[in-house]
Specification:
Length: about 375
């Protein structure tokens, strides 16, 4: 019997440990991130919780004490007094002091969070349906960041892919935002079409991205790593498919990334030639960034909403007609020619790609100079 009981005890302990491990990935409380603001928000959050716990203990303690010790069976004749000035002063002053004790640290935290002065660098963040555009004004770097290709394929209906087998499904991007650690980074956040919200939980804050208006926030990331987030404002059909990935690296690694980015751009400009291979490679990436969410990665489109590009008369017919559609827009399709964040090279490449992919065999090579003349 003793051995049987010990076996049951060990089994219960093993199950408890297994359950604890399974729940380790889930968080009940807010996370403590690698930034000063995150720790500050977490500290105030815990302080407020313990104040509420203290209030609960006192209030319920007095209530249960009164229920037990002043019940009718012990005091059949109730007290008849009315009003007590001292008691009323006490229960007015104590809540006021509690509110002041909460307001002071909350105000300090809000002032600290909103203070973007003294920043070491600035990054402009622009929300689009359904991707993010990042710009480093001091470095001259700018690029789009979209849902990674594997997640994008897995999310399609009848894709044949198991989303659970895709690493960081719907939380990965093609081009992460790269930033150095231990630098105060000011984020200037806006949107180009509808309301979005840039939110990385580890930073402790989120900011609305509003068309025609710029909001500001800052973060000093103290630990290298990947920090993931998502758009936190319902922004349309594919709202759930615009993740955020911030890659925090050391200053040396950041400098190397900047140098490599400029070198690759300089090499592309130095080549001077615009060949089919270059256009197709660049066009595929641009298509996945700007077009695949509507026309699908294989160009099959969405019946009744977004037309297919495979064997499409627009994609295989008169090239000037397609240029007009892409640059000026049509129906639900935006006018990409008016978007200054999309380069002539990207537009030329994506049109070339569409006219020569998905079984389309036009053989046309659209040059950036042709786009520049039409914009």
């Amino acid at each position: 019997m003793i051995l049987f009981n010990l076996s049951r005890l060990f089994l219960a302990v093993a199950l408890s440990l297994g359950a604890a491990a399974a729940w380790a990935d889930y968080h009940v409380n807010i996370p403590v991130g690698p930034t000063e603001t995150s720790r500050m928000i977490y500290g105030f959050h815990m302080y407020a919780i313990w104040v509420c716990v203290g209030i609960g203990v006192v209030v319920f303690g007095v209530m249960f004490y009164s229920i037990i010790n002043h019940r009718k069976s012990k005091n059949p004749v109730p007290a008849s007094f009315h009003e007590n000035t001292k008691l009323e002063i006490i229960w007015t002053v104590i809540p006021v002091l509690i509110l002041i004790s909460l307001a002071i640290p909350a105000t300090k935290a809000l002032i600290k969070i909103e203070d973007t002065s003294g920043s070491d660098m600035t990054i402009k963040v622009t929300g689009y349906q359904w991707k993010w555009h990042y710009e480093y004004p001091e470095e001259g770097i700018k690029f789009f960041s979209s849902l990674d290709e594997e997640s994008n394929r897995a999310r399609q209906m009848n894709s044949g892919m198991d989303p659970e087998k895709v690493p960081n499904y719907l939380l990965n991007v093609d081009h992460p935002l790269v930033v150095p650690i231990n630098k105060k980074i000011r984020f200037m956040i806006t949107a180009a079409d509808v309301l979005h919200a840039w939110w990385v939980p580890a930073f402790g804050w989120k900011k609305d991205a509003i068309p025609g208006y710029i909001t500001a926030a800052w973060a000093t990331i103290e630990k290298p790593g990947l920090y993931r987030g998502q758009c936190a404002e319902l922004c349309g059909r594919d709202h759930g498919y615009m993740p955020i990935v911030v890659k925090a690296v050391t200053q040396e690694e950041y400098d190397a990334w900047v140098a490599q980015w400029k070198q690759s751009r300089g090499a592309a400009e130095a080549e001077g030639s615009w060949g089919m291979d270059q256009a197709m490679n660049m066009g595929k990436s641009a298509y996945n960034t700007h077009c695949a969410s509507c026309h699908k990665a294989d160009g099959s489109g969405i019946q009744g909403t977004f037309p297919a590009l495979a064997d499409s008369p627009v994609a295989t017919g008169d090239v000037d007609q397609m240029l007009a559609v892409v640059l000026e827009g049509k129906g639900m399709m935006p006018a990409f020619g008016q978007d200054e964040n999309i380069s002539d090279e990207s537009l030329a490449a994506v049109i070339t790609y569409v006219r020569n992919a998905f079984g389309n065999e036009s053989g046309d090579l659209v040059k950036p100079e042709a786009i520049a003349e039409l914009r």
